[in-house]
Input
Amino acid sequence: MTADRQKVVRLLRTARGQIDGILKMIDDNRYCIDISNQITACQAILSKVNKEVLNAHLANCVLHSSGNDAKEKLSEIAKILDQLL
Amino acid sequence: MTADRQKVVRLLRTARGQIDGILKMIDDNRYCIDISNQITACQAILSKVNKEVLNAHLANCVLHSSGNDAKEKLSEIAKILDQLL
Amino acid sequence: MTADRQKVVRLLRTARGQIDGILKMIDDNRYCIDISNQITACQAILSKVNKEVLNAHLANCVLHSSGNDAKEKLSEIAKILDQLL
Amino acid sequence: MTADRQKVVRLLRTARGQIDGILKMIDDNRYCIDISNQITACQAILSKVNKEVLNAHLANCVLHSSGNDAKEKLSEIAKILDQLL
Output
């Protein structure tokens, strides 16, 4: 992985902490909407991680690829875009 | 929370396990796209949890609310829809 | 429909005008990314319309429903949330 | 644009026809959820167009770019991913 390792690890640990927090909220029988909002917040952190990973991938691995390797890497990106659109 | 507690807890533990797996992938210097795909898989699990929580909320808390309570609960749902649309 | 008719019609006409604009961009052989950005802008307008329609639906039709009608209306909302999450 | 022009134009005309249909539904005072579903269907068509445009762009314009041009084109893709994630 070419992304900023420290930043990515920090964000993933935050997301893991949030999941622990959500498990505790369920234990405490908290309100559905509060739990839903925390799930959404955790997904937002994971999106941030994904952006970091994919931005670095495009700016490094994809940019410095060529020939069949470039073709395959761009087809991987197309597949990700297809899932998101 | 009115959702199936056992199902929700099981899914959240799976998501936490996936984050541990992603942290290990970063440690093992795995390929960016493989890491990105695992992040997406973890987000899909969290979406599944969110659906469980919100479906149960609508079918229980919102359905059995009335007056100002119903008004507030529907405004919470509108806010969630606004973020998603 | 209970949403602000004038606002919704105005937004839909804007979206239709954007589609005409995109068809013209294709005719003019414009750059892929410029076309993609216009498609995204048009989708954003449609999202805005959808928010208007669903917010008004929640604040009127759903709020003033009861019994089996309320149950069905909340199940329609659950279905929409399921598609979005 | 490098995408299949005929397919893209056909889809865009379908989307425009759907918007005309939605305007008629509003005129006919149809049910909010039916209107919302048609808006979602129209957005799905536009997503399909966007996939066509971006897939062809990656497989042609981006693949055959190099140097600063490649750098800029990949940064455009990163920007689109950022909006979607």
Summary: Chain C touches chain B at residues 47, 50-51, 54-55, 58-59, 62-63, 70-71, 74-75, 77-78, 80-82, 84-85 (CB under 8 Å).
